[in-house]
Structures are given as C-alpha cells and as structure tokens.
Specification:
The chain contains five helices and five strands. Strands 1-2-3-4-5 form a five-stranded mixed sheet. Helix 1 runs parallel beside helix 2. With 118 residues, the chain is α/β, with parallel strands linked by helices.
C-alpha cells in the first residue's frame, strides 16, 4: 500500500488540497481532518487537486459526500481537478460528475470561484 499525503495551500479565498498517493479507508481520516480544519477556519471554497492521487476507494469518495452539504450551506463548494483517467473513472462510475464540478486544470477550478465572497 502506498502512503497518502494532503498538502494544503491558499490561493486567495480558495483553499487547495493536493492529494498524493492511495486514498482508502485507512487514509481517509487524514483527508477528513484536512477538510474539517478548513471548515473550522471558515474556508468553504475548496479545490481538490487529484494529480498525484493514484487510487481512491469508496471510503475516500465518502469523505467528499460527508462535507459537501455543510460547504454548500455556507455558500462554498468543493471542486475537483487534475484527475487521472483511472481516478476519474471511479468518480464517474458513482455519478460524481453530476454532483461536483470537475475540471481538467486547477486554474480553471480556482477561476470558477471568482466573484464569491467567501
């Protein structure tokens, strides 16, 4: 099993989480903690860059579902970007493109937050 890392950086009012490695039931709590920290800090505009994410399980997908309602209730969103075809196929299989804005490039996802107050 590969390791998993979440790297956070700020781009103005947008928080970017870079996911690296293998996201499954054992590593999902690290992503949960990262997102909860953002929400506690009233950071509701979130871009998740999946460029270096090599695998995601249903437990990893569940993390996004667990937080999306609170994020959107606070006029924010979680946008996903830079997915490999392997990772995108998992999201697509479960209908995530209907629920989440998925872009090819991080800059496009950040740009979509332009004009938002939070």
């Amino acid at each position: 099993m590969s390791d998993f890392h979440v790297v956070q950086r700020e781009h103005g009012a947008v928080s970017v989480l870079e996911l690296r490695g293998y996201l499954d039931a054992h590593t999902a709590p690290r992503l949960e903690e990262a997102i909860q920290t953002l929400l506690t800090s009233s950071r509701f505009n979130i871009v998740v860059n999946c460029r270096d994410l090599s695998y995601i399980s249903s437990a990893g997908l569940g993390v996004f579902m667990a937080f999306i309602e609170e994020v959107r209730k606070n006029e924010g969103d979680i946008k996903l970007t830079n997915m490999t075809s392997k990772v995108f196929n998992v999201f697509d299989l479960l209908g995530f493109p209907l629920l989440y804005d998925i872009t090819k490039e991080e800059a496009d996802a950040i740009r979509k937050f332009s004009g938002k107050k939070k």
